[in-house]
Protein: allantoinase
Amino acid sequence: MTVTGRLPGEEEGPAGEPFDLVVRSRRVVLPDGERPAAVAVRAGRIAAVTAYDAPAVAGEQADLGDVCLLPGLVDTHVHVNEPGRTEWEGFATATRAAAAGGVTTIVDMPLNSLPPTVDPGALAVKRAAARGQCAVDVGFWGGAVPGNVRRLRPLHEAGVYGFKCFLSPSGVDEFPPLDDAGLAEAMREVASFDGLLIVHAEDPVLLTDPLGPTYPEFLASRPGEAERRAVERVIAAARETGARAHILHVSSAACLEPLEAARRDGVRVSAETCPHYLTLTAEQVRGPEFKCCPPIRDGGNRERLWEGLAAGVLSCVVSDHSPSTPDLKVPDFAAAWGGISSLQVGLPAVWTEATARGHTLADVTGWMSSAPARLAGLAAKGAIAVGYDADLCAFDDTATFTVEAERLRHRNPVTPYHGRTLTGVVRATWLRGRPVTDATPPFGVLL
Structure:
C-alpha cells in the first residue's frame, strides 16, 4: 500500500476542483460486486468511483494494490456502558477498537450505562458523555421498559434509531423486561410513528437457573426453544400491530423456521446474528470469557445459522460487544457476567469462517455494513457509492494474525478470541475521507 500526493499529469475532479483523497485498489467491493476501481473523495463524501488507473488530481493518493477496499462496517449492536459503568467500557476505548477493526459507525445500546437511555434526559446525558471522545461516528438506541411507553415518541424525536426491549431479565435491575402486554403496548406506540423495536428474545418461562458451575449446565439452562418461543411472540405482536421489529443476536437455529415463515407472510420482522455464534461452538468453550446470553451452541447449530444467513433469513452480523471488567468473569458459568468482547475482531473472525464456506467479501460487507446501515436508517453509510460518506476500510484478506487480548483497543483484555488465528487484517480505516489512527484526535460525529 502506497500513499502519495498529487501525481504529474493528473486530471482534476468533475467540478474542476481537486479531490481531497483518491484511494485505488484492484479489489474494491462496490454495490454491484468486486472490481478494480479508484474512489475519489471530496468534503467527506464519495464524489466519484472511476477506473483503477483513471488519472485524477487529489491532495492525497493511496494505492492499495491487491489489498481490498471495503465500505466501513456499521455495527448496530455495541454496549459502550458510559456513563455509569465506564470501567467496563467507554466511548474513547470502544470507538478506537471499532476503527482498528474497520468499523466506522456504531450504534450504542441503551444499557448498561447509568442512567439507561429510556427518556430524552438520559439520552442527553449519554450524548454529553460521548462528545469529543469518539474515533468513529456514533448513534444511539433508546430503551423500551415497563412504564416508559409515553417517552418513546419523544426519544424518537430526539434522534434515537429505535428502541431495545428484553422479554427476559436483562442482567441489570434498571432495565427490566416487558411482558406480553408491555410488548404489545410498545409495538403499537412504535408503529404509530413507524419506528423500530429491537428485541432480546428469550422466553423467561423456559429459562432456569443452572444446576452447576460448568458450561454444559449453563447451556442447558437457556435452551434454543426459549429463543424460538420468544421470537414467535414477537412475530405475533408485529403481525397484529404492523410494527417493525428486529430480533437481536439469534443464537439458535430453531428460530429460523418461524422467521422465514414470517418473512414469506410479509410480517415486518428481521433478525441478526453475531460473530461468536458463527465462529465459536460449545465444544470450544474454555472459560467464562465465552459466556453470553443467549449462549454459544453446538457446531451443528452453527452450520444452520450459516445456512440461514446465506438464505437471507438472518440479514445482519453485528458484534453485540458487551464487555466487563475481568473480575466479573469468574470461573463459575452460573455467576459470571455474560457478554462477549469482539468489536475489533468481528470482521476477521467472520471472514475466516465465511471464506471457508465459499462466501465472498461482497457477502460479508453486505451482512456487516450495508444491511446494518439499512436497519438503522443510516442512508449515507454502508456502501462505496457516490454521495455516501467516505467511510472506508483497507482489508488484507489473505494475511493472518493471532489475537492477543492485551493488544486490543477495548478497555479490558478479555475476549474468547485470545490465541485464535484469524484470516484478514485491517490495514487502514478512513472516516469521511480522513484516516483514523492511534495518533489522530477523535473526530467522530454523534449521529
User: Anything to note?
Assistant: The CA atoms of residues 142 and 334 lie 29 Å apart.
